[in-house]
Input
Amino acid sequence: MKEYEHSVTLDKSKCTGCTTCLRYCPTEAIRIRDGHAQINPVRCIDCGECVRVCPHKAKKVRYSKFENYRDYKCKIAIVPPSLFGQFERLENVDTVLQGLYDLGFDEVYEVAKSAELVSAYTRLYLKTEGIKKPVISSACPAITRLITLRFPYLKDNILPILPPMEIAAHDAKIRAKEKNPELTDEDICVYFISPCPAKCSYIKNGFGDYESEIDVVLSMNDIYFSY
Output
């Protein structure tokens, strides 16, 4: 069985063993050993709470860098709605989308489009007789991993559809090939601009037996400060 690859990491040189992360971790995945925090990889769901609360910046998230993947013929950015929320008084999202093209992306695809499809499917699914309720969204990989690890009896309650970002990646590839029929899968690189470490880990590990169509995960911070 493939070992689960985490995105949240610990820099021991900055950790003082202050126990802040231990107190806030929702899955009790952190313990203090020899004066430093230790993250139990079996319990960790990469929710990023320890990154948020650490006063010494000892926790960080492992992301890729855009400049390391510039050689692809077609570079597709998958954009979550949360990216637009980082800009105060944003009157036109096209300003942000154009900024992504200016950074070097060839295609830009908004996750919101796929989220609408998931919402429509969810409404139909909820009308199905015999389904287990409550129905739990599959959109958050931190929640789905938490259920897998701690509440396996709820696995059948998870909505049986891929997350919006995965549907967006699939549709974006199809659109790119329609516009440029000469492109092959090897020519295309799909980048997801991630707002959280859990999505970063999901892309590394897949969704159950499904292998993600997203190739690279970029930090939203890196993209935001590139504007």
In short: The chain has a mean pLDDT of 91.
